[in-house]
Amino acid sequence: MSALARLLFGRRARLRWIHLILGGALAMPYVLVGSVVVGPVTGATDVFGSLPLQLASFGVGLPLAAVTSLFPLTRPLESAAVRWLCGVDADRLALTPARTRDEKGRTAAWFTLHLGFGGIIAGMSLALPPFAAVLIVLPVLAGLRDDRLGLPEVLDHTWALALAPVAGALSLVALAGCAAGCGALLARWAPPLLGPTPRERLAAAEARAADLAVRNRLARELHDSVGHALSAVTLQASAARRVLDSDPEFVREALAAIEDTTRRTVGELDAVLGVLREGDAPGTAPAPTLAADLDGLLRRTRAGGQRVRATVDADPEALPPLVSREAYRIVQEGLSNALKHAGERAAVQLRITVTGGALEITVENPVDGPAPSRAGGGHGLRGMADRARLLGGTATAGPTGTQTWRLHATLPMTGPVGQDPYDRPRRRGPA
Questions:
Q1: Same structural domain, 262 and 146
Q2: Enzyme group, top EC level (predicted)?
Q3: Strands 358-366 and 307-313: what pairing?
């Protein structure tokens, strides 16, 4: 019994009832227009004094409602009402104006159903409650049995009079049942009629995938840039502190490297954050490349006391810009890992060569025992693999032998080229 009461009078049923009443209110102007047509055709002077003529006016007005539903804001407004009043999930509804013929046709069908069911339920909601109230109190108030109320003659019988309250209560329950049933039907039909088309779903999925790709790449940019800078600055500051009194020249070089590293990192951070700010243009600081900053990267790494032996058998200026940019980040991450895990003054081997139309990067450094691990770590290695994969290449890292860690990446000079991480793709809707 409680389940039935909740189904007929629960919060969701009441909200859907309100949705139907709103549909009835929207239908009233169309009914008035319909009465202007029905009156002269039938010769009636009082259209609203006859139930058949009222229904005829209602039937004439619904096609007019279907035509006016082509107004662009109809679908988003109806979808918003269905979402809040009918309890339909937002992702099952389209919140954009209908553009194609199919979308407009489905919107017109929905609007007609909403106003049709709403007009019927609204009319019943106006007529049935007063009539039911009269039936319920009829046995108690004999004055209500006046002929002027137009009550059926059967109510003059004692048995009928005794059953009048039951009939009144049942009529209210029937009204609630009709409202709940119509509301459930509209909630069920809303997704097919107001929901996005397959093309809209595809466009939304593409937009989400593009945004996710940008976010992932920006996360890699922040990890590689800021992570490397913090590792380098920490090592440089530590080395400067140890020789502060004995080697002032080294301290000056370390401080200069810290200043250069932090200045460049702030510029890169500003560029990345500029992409994240909706509506802002990307920052003015260019993303670093091998051609622009390989020598500076090596200099700043060595300023902390790390010995880096670099062999560059490739012309950085001749590399494609995106290959040069991704290669720079891979080299930066390899040196950053060496800074973290190699011993003091350990020698790091860096080789950059071009072999068979592909740029090959190799970074080798000693490690003291197994490579250390930390909670949440490993993002840099995954980021390098992602960068290489977007260019159609590969990147692997792992121990070779007992105390050596080796990073090797191959980046094709031609082939698939990933999107520039500093370019935010424009969202495209259906054509």
A1: no
A2: transferase
A3: unpaired
DSSP-derived pairing of the beta strands 307-313 and 404-412: unpaired
- Lookup result for tokens 């500076």: 296
Question: Could you tell me if 145 and 155 are in contact, meaning their C-beta atoms sit under 8 angstroms apart?
Answer: yes
Same domain, 163 and 246: no
Nearby residues of 183 by Cβ (< 8 Å), 6 or more positions away: 13, 16, 17, 19, 20, 86
Q: Please tell me the distance from the alpha carbon of residue 366 to that of residue 347, in angstroms, as a whole number.
A: 8
Classify residue 421: in a domain, yes or no: no
Give the residue from 67, 70, 68 showing the smallest Cα distance to 99: 70
**Domain CATH number, residue 264:** 3.30.565.10
Q: Which two tokens stand for residue 244?
A: 């502060």
Average pLDDT over residues 139-154: 59
User: Residue 268 domain-assigned?
Assistant: yes
For residues 39 and 48, is the Cβ–Cβ distance under 8 A?
A: no
Rounded to whole angstroms, how far apart are CA atoms 425 and 372? 38
Q: What is the pLDDT of residues 194-251, one digit of tens each?
A: 998 777 777 777 777 667 766 777 777 676 677 767 777 877 787 778 778 788 887 8
Same domain (yes/no): 162, 256: no
The pTM (predicted TM-score) of the whole model is: 0.55
Cβ neighbours around 104 below 10 Å, total: 17
Q: Do residues 180 and 36 share a domain?
A: yes
Structural domain boundaries enclosing 397: 204-412
Q: What angle do CA 420, 421, 423 make, to 5 degrees?
A: 70
pLDDT, mean of residues 326-335? 87
Residue 424 within any structural domain of the chain: no
Are 191 and 211 in a shared domain?
no
One domain for residues 190 and 243: no
Map tokens 């243009």 to a residue: 281
Does some domain include residue 245?
yes
Percent over 90 (pLDDT), the chain: 32
Q: Report the greatest alpha carbon distance in the chain.
A: 119
Contact 175, 125 (CB under 8 A): yes
Rounded to the nearest 5 degrees, what angle is found at the Cα of 234, between the Cα atoms of 286 and 271?
15
My answer on whether 148 and 117 are in the same domain is yes
The number of distinct structural domains making up the chain is 2
